[in-house]
Design a protein that fits this description.
Chain A has 278 residues and is an all-alpha fold. In chain A, 79% of the residues lie in helices and 0% in strands. Classes of the chains: A mainly alpha (278), B alpha/beta (281). At the A-B interface, helix 6, helix 7 and helix 9 of A face strand 6, helix 3 and helix 5 of B.
Chain lengths: 278, 281
């Protein structure tokens, strides 16, 4: 389980989990789960287009991911992205349908982008993935404070002189980058569940923002490691385990929050227990 | 600029002949007033009178004709002299952020990177929580607090950056009467203790009348300013609205009533439930 190609799988899974945990924390904080769903899924069309013209599918994927991020940011109004995201996704999926139809032959690379090939990662994929991961981590660390304030209190952030529109665009670009680097490895469907499941679970265990961010990374790591180990043992796909373990961790988080509140322990929603007074 | 502040000669905020048009509609016309340090000023006007627009002008977020001087210098974005508490904000109870974390963000949220913890930083946050009576719920998630408590946390968030002018947009609009009184009393205390200027907007002036030093009354896009006695008068407000209004005193409360004498008797019947009646044509 820890030899040969499996070493690559463990390494890349670890990198992916760190990025998904960090970026996902802000995705959940901003209520942008739909964006995190739309960018990887819509960018599938880019991979199909690239395969059609015979270039590296990842390049096509990346181009579409950034196009999606820019269009969502430009069309969205003050952090409200619902309709802009839906329209961007619809446009990209429509193009994807066309490109897939135009392709005369069945293209396994395109299919692999949907579910990823974490067990088939080569050393040549490992290095660029690690490099892009470092960029994502640095970007999130740099954006941390202005992104936090503009996510929670956009009017206050604007009054503070924070360029909220630019912060929004920068964050969406980070989501696009995180997606592009991780999708070939874990697939469009898995990155989404990692980006949402881990940070959403983390919020149930702590009230402190930095602790929640760290816990989000830790839970993402636990999910992918468990998924790979289970997949290795059972021969069931990694994606199945990432999805189910991710959902399970969220459920455990909610149960923990409910239990601590009920038991009257210092609860995740603060020391005050019972109905709030006004 | 700092000399001007220390000798107290220049007002902390000077608004001169400010006009704003939004989508072809003139929202503010030749608005002029000034605010000194240590003054508690009420910006009064009905919904849509241009209060929020005026705040955006002062914050440097809205283009306008005329001049606005903050601390003697032209208005700008990212002005450290101004603290701001918005009218609408929604904090999700699921967000892992304690009241003290939000206050700490007020120190340096505009900076890149993650804040390095220090004793001085913690002490400053503690001091601000104390100043707004928020010690009891400092470790609770902000999203789980009541409206009045969140308002106080946001005031502390604004105050921690040591502004000279604090703008609050309709802080009483979503509060019950008691929380509203608490917030007003707190602001009056902060104004005198910290010698800062506070400008608070409201569509209802009566809760503010006992504590404010001055009033800026917005109506029909224009403003009248001065002490309450100078501004809230039949002659001044009639000129401002552009038609006749009556200013009535009922049990120590002020009613601004527009219309004919016949309608007057009708509206005053409701004075127990409505402390202020404004009918703007």
């Amino acid at each position: 389980m820890f030899s040969g190609f499996m070493i690559h799988a463990w390494t890349v899974a670890t990198i992916v989990a760190v990025v998904a945990g960090l970026v996902g924390f802000f995705v959940v904080l901003r209520g942008s789960a739909f964006v995190a769903h739309a960018i990887p899924n819509g960018s599938f069309a880019g991979a199909a287009a690239a395969s059609l013209v015979g270039i590296n599918t990842l390049i096509g994927f990346g181009v579409f991911a950034f196009f999606g991020a820019f269009s969502i940011s430009a069309l969205g109004h003050r952090g409200r992205h619902d309709v802009a995201t839906a329209l961007t996704l619809v446009l990209m999926l429509g193009l994807g349908a066309l490109f897939v139809t135009l392709s005369v032959e069945y293209t396994p690379e395109v299919y692999s982008l949907l579910f990823g090939e974490i067990l088939g990662v080569s050393i040549s994929q490992l290095i660029p993935t690690a490099g892009l991961a470092v960029v994502c981590v640095i970007a999130i660390a740099l954006l941390y404070r202005p992104l936090m304030l503009s996510s929670l209190l956009p009017d206050v952030a604007e009054a503070r002189g924070i360029a909220t529109a630019r912060i929004d665009l920068a964050f969406l670009a980070v989501v696009a980058l995180a997606t592009t680097m991780t999708v070939p490895v874990v697939g469009t469907l898995l990155i989404f569940s990692l980006m949402i499941g881990a940070p959403a679970a983390a919020r149930s265990f702590t009230d402190k923002p930095l602790q929640a961010l760290g816990l989000s990374v830790a839970i993402a790591l636990a999910i992918v490691w468990a998924a790979i180990a289970l997949s290795y043992q059972t021969n069931y796909p990694v994606g199945f385990f990432v999805g189910t373990v991710s959902a399970a961790s969220y459920t455990v988080g909610r149960l923990w929050a409910a239990w601590t509140r009920h038991a009257g322990i210092r609860s995740p929603t603060g020391p005050r227990v019972g109905p709030k007074y006004t | 600029m700092s000399e001007a502040l220390s000798n107290g000669s220049a007002p902390i905020l000077a608004v001169d002949e400010v006009s704003v048009s939004l989508a072809g509609r003139e929202v503010l016309r030749d608005v002029s007033f000034a605010i000194e340090s240590g003054e508690f000023t009420g910006l009064i006007g009905s919904n849509g009178a241009g209060k929020t627009t005026l705040f955006r002008v002062i914050l440097g977020l809205q283009a306008a004709h005329g001049t606005v001087l903050v601390g003697g210098a032209p208005r700008s974005r990212r002005n450290p002299l101004i603290g701001y508490v918005p009218q609408k904000f929604q904090l999700d109870p699921d967000v892992p952020l304690r009241a003290r974390d939000l206050v700490a963000l007020g120190l340096d949220a505009h900076r890149y990177g993650i804040a390095t913890p220090s004793r001085a930083r913690r002490a400053r946050v503690e001091e601000m929580l104390e100043a707004v009576d928020a010690r009891d719920f400092a470790d609770a998630r902000v999203g789980t607090l009541s409206g009045g408590e969140q308002q106080r946390v946001l005031i502390a968030h604004a105050l921690i950056a040591a502004p000279k002018l604090l703008l609050l947009d309709e802080p009483l609009a979503n509060l019950d009467l008691r929380s509203g009184h608490e917030v007003v009393a707190l602001l009056a205390r902060i104004t005198s203790e910290q010698r800062i200027a506070v400008l608070i907007s409201a569509h209802e002036m009566n809760p503010l009348l006992p504590v404010i030093d001055r009033i800026v009354y917005l109506a029909a896009g224009r403003a009248a300013s001065g002490t309450t006695e100078e501004v809230v008068r039949t002659s001044v407000l009639s000129a401002l609205y552009g038609h006749h209004v009556d200013v009535l005193q009922v049990h120590g409360r002020v009613l601004v009533v527009a219309g004919e004498a016949g309608e007057l008797a009708d509206t005053s019947d409701h004075s127990h439930t409505q402390t202020q009646v404004e009918i703007v044509s």
